[in-house]
Write a structure and sequence with these properties.
15 helices, alpha+beta, elongated, 470 residues, five-stranded mixed beta sheet, five-stranded antiparallel beta sheet, 16 strands, 17% strand
Amino acid sequence: NMATLYFGMLPVMGLAMLPFLLRKPFADEPYTDDPHRRDALFLAAACLVFLLYSLGRYTPFFSLIFMAVPGIDRFRRPADALFLACAFGSIAGGYAVHRWITLPRLRLPGVLLALFGFMALVALLSGASLARSVGRLEQTIAPLAASVCFLVAGGMCLLLLRQLEGRKRLLMLSVSLFMLADLGWNNAPNESTGLVTDTYDVLRPQTQNETIRVLKDRTAAGRGPDRIDRVELAGLGFHWPNASLVHDLHHTLGYNPVRDAHYSRAVGTRDHIAMPSDRLFTPLFHSYRSLMADMTGLRFIASPVPLKELDPKVDEAEFPLVARTADGFIYENPRALPRVLFAAHALFAETEALIDSGSWPEGFNPRDSVVLGRAVTQAEAAGKAGTRSVRILSYRNTEVIIEAQSSGGGFVVLNDLYDDWWQVSVNGLPATMERANAVFRAVAVPPGGVRVRFSFHPFRGAWREVRGGK
């Protein structure tokens, strides 16, 4: 789908000429600086940066950015930067066309025109070479030929626009007609971009979709002092994971520009879960009938096929069918655990080995114990018996406040993704956040009543990475 991002031959050619259109030597008459010059340079430079980044490992630039800029290594797909490259490039390219039309008696040297021709030839040959390497040269001949035609037509259009200087109506008509023809042909609707709008009805906040309604009603009804249930929209289509963002559904496999490697390996997130066959199970999340599935708080599973087809290991009798909608089936996992738990004692298991093997330490019970990726002390391993309770006071995107009460102390465990850019405090004092149960968060708390606050600090976390800390 990234290949459909195209903003027209005129802006592309204008963007290529922009550095030369902003320099004095190419104008005969006295040069007057344009107030938008710096804006255009910024947009063009940003477009170039985003373009280089989007090419990922195919350029050395990505490796430098990946190593040098804190936080870049958290983003899951470099190609998404093309959205920004097109947005910035189309504006900068349009400005360049404006400069081309309005600069008095503009002269472009022959070496510059030769350079443009060489760049176009390299692009076409690269496309043909890539097509040949994957056995698709025959299918590529027509689009490559169309590219040559639009390139030549774009050059002729630019020459025509110079001749129409001062005739605004004809200028506007010429630009509009060329852009309409260009985008209408090269960016025409297809099976990825041109589906009927009703296809995406579930992405409307006011949707009447029955599956969404059932999930919203069920999760709202199940919400409690310690519980915020999660759902899984498995194989309902490419756009369905985005519906969780629109309707505030906590989705185990939702689209997210930030992906944690531990979570992906532990739970089985992939680039997309568009079809039932895309659902990948892992050693730790080997089935919906697994301890990890319960710990994520996965309460409802929506699927276009019966659950047994999605996960052959499950016994459907253990997952009641709560609704049958036009989209498929909705099952309930009655063993889903609360979002926040209190553990009286700790166990040790190396995180990487735990994710790879899927084998929990002997005696592990998430309602009573927590698995830490570091060595635990004798006191932590033994724990203390007694009463304990825990509840969520406030839950927001960048802050979670929890209240806990215990007679012997222990660990407050929040079944949300661990990330070291989160900070934690206990009774207003900084505390150490632990990676719990492979991918979640925990913090040690003393006996008595405590207030735990998890808060997200991306800039502080990035600065800590720059300084080489954790």
